[in-house]
Design a protein that fits this description.
Order of helices and strands: HHEHHHEHHEH
Shape: globular
Radius of gyration: 19 Å
Number of strands: 3
Length: 173
């Protein structure tokens, strides 16, 4: 019995590893956030609003970019890439929020509280499924950026964002 269990476990690991290798070609994981102090100040707004995301002060047209000449990592270009997934109205609302209100978000920290925020994951998953067969850079993040227009949310200070974003603060913001 023990030998059979070991053989089954080995087969399961091989199957799982093959699946992971296959999926990692399509999936990128981002886990560069480590908390070094208490996060109590995030819990109350998360529970009240149901969704918590971090603000992101990235240049909307990219590094050294402008409306007519996008630069490296243009958030507006990334938003345009998901227009078909989110529709024209939501695209327009999101562009206005990013350009006029200067409210962009990064998924360096996302919190979802039940029951208040439980509609968000279903909305996000439905849009991700619509784009499953497309090769859209940052589809997961930009879909969050757009969908927060439809949901109650708390915008946490950028200080809670991942340290990699320091790069953007040293550019021509």
């Amino acid at each position: 019995m023990t030998q059979a269990r070991c053989l089954f476990a080995a087969e399961s690991e091989q199957t799982r590893d093959a699946g992971l290798r296959r999926d990692l070609g399509k999936l990128g994981c981002d886990s560069d956030l480590i908390f070094q102090s208490p996060i109590d100040m995030l819990w109350e707004p998360l529970e009240q609003e149901g969704l918590l995301v971090t603000r992101f002060f990235s240049p909307p047209y990219g590094i050294d970019g402008a409306a007519g000449r996008p630069g490296f990592d243009s958030r507006m270009n990334h938003l345009e890439d998901i227009r078909e997934l989110i529709g024209d109205d939501l695209h327009q609302q999101t562009a206005k929020r990013m350009l006029d209100d200067r409210i962009d978000v990064n998924v360096g920290l996302v919190g979802i509280a039940r029951p208040t925020g439980e509609d968000f994951p279903a909305d996000w998953a439905a849009h991700m499924e619509k784009g499953r067969d497309r090769k859209i850079l940052l589809m997961d993040e930009m879909t969050v950026v757009a969908l927060i227009n439809r949901h109650r949310r708390h915008l946490a200070d950028e200080a809670w964002n991942c340290p990699a974003d320091e790069f953007f603060r040293r550019t021509n913001l």
